[in-house]
């Protein structure tokens, strides 16, 4: 690879700068979520505020959902890099599509209105973006797992099960939102299965650990 194209953020200082950059990108994306509603609110004038809230209930729901989801994904990213002492070019580049998904999410969020509530394309684009972000979060963890020299010696192995299960559930929710448009975003309730799935994986692994 050309040295000019090789990410220079491979030391501890560099990885800290990358994390700060990701934090800034995430904060901007979360802020952008509210701007369409602010624009709509500016046109209320003397109109009934209760009527505005009633007419835009689904949009408000989409904003709250996306805000919580981005925060949760950022929290997982932060946890992934807590004990990372350096980076690799592959790890740095894997952050780019992750951030691309976070920055793109306000767009499909804006499409989630009453008219598109049962649209396979709108719901699929939204859930598909979440699945994209989750998948590249998992890829980052895989890179860290396969590169132990960038973790402290006492950090232990990277737990891949949570990110792996989350990505699988996201893909399942994507299939549900596209194949069953009436269910729409309610397919994201499948994410609540992550906890039970992790406990099941833990039980399956326990006998092998004792052996």
Automatic annotation (TrEMBL):
What is the recorded membrane topology of this protein? Answer: Multi-pass membrane protein
Q: Does the keyword Iron apply?
A: no
Q: Which residues cross the membrane?
A: 21-38, 58-75, 87-105, 125-144, 156-177, 183-201
The UniProt GO MF terms for this protein read: potassium channel activity; proton channel activity
The places in or outside the cell where this protein is found are: Membrane
Q: What are the record keywords, sorted?
A: Ion channel, Ion transport, Membrane, Potassium, Potassium channel, Potassium transport, Transmembrane, Transmembrane helix, Transport
Specify where it is mainly localized. Answer: membrane
Keyword Cell inner membrane (UniProt)? no
One GO location term (cellular component): membrane
Question: Which InterPro entries does this one have?
Answer: TMEM175-like (IPR010617)
Recorded catalytic reaction(s): these are: K(+)(in) = K(+)(out)
Give the family, as the similarity comment puts it.
Belongs to the TMEM175 family.
The protein here is known as DUF1211 domain-containing protein
Task: Look up and give the organism this protein is from.
Answer: Arthrobacter jiangjiafuii
